[in-house]
Amino acid sequence: MKAQTPQEAANEQTIRKLYSFANATTKDTAGFVAMFGNGGYFYDVGAGKKYYGRDIGVTVDNYATAFPDMHRDFISLYTAADVVVVELTLNGTHKGDLDLPKGVIPPTGRVMHAPCFYFFHFKYFKIMSFHCYFAVPILLDQLVVFLNLQASFKH
What we know:
Strand content: 35-45%
Radius of gyration: 16 Å
CATH architecture: Roll
Shape: globular
Oligomer: single chain
Strand order of the largest sheet: 2-1-8-7-4-3
CATH topology: Nuclear Transport Factor 2, Chain: A
């Protein structure tokens, strides 16, 4: 494995800082959003939605509310020039409303350990794109709402 360039090392540190801003116990939504460059975006692939500007922080607040002990465990992290790829799990106990595109799932008290892949592109040490591939079916199964999804939503 080749050694990281200074740019790659800086990009990795940016991602690690970004995650600290998204963890429930150290949440800093404004800090999270500030890590993105002008025109940068967060793409929640599972929800089919892109977020720009201040809206980038919406999912940080949503998941910190739903999972007040939310944290990320890194499995692997790869850097290549202006790209960072992260394999991780999202972890926490579902104690608050989880707002999803089709409705709100009220607290279940269940624990999630859901796998995820993140792809980042950088420009001038700022995040320009963040694509999140979150294993939503696994999350829903762990919350025990997958088989009766429609009945699980508050309307």
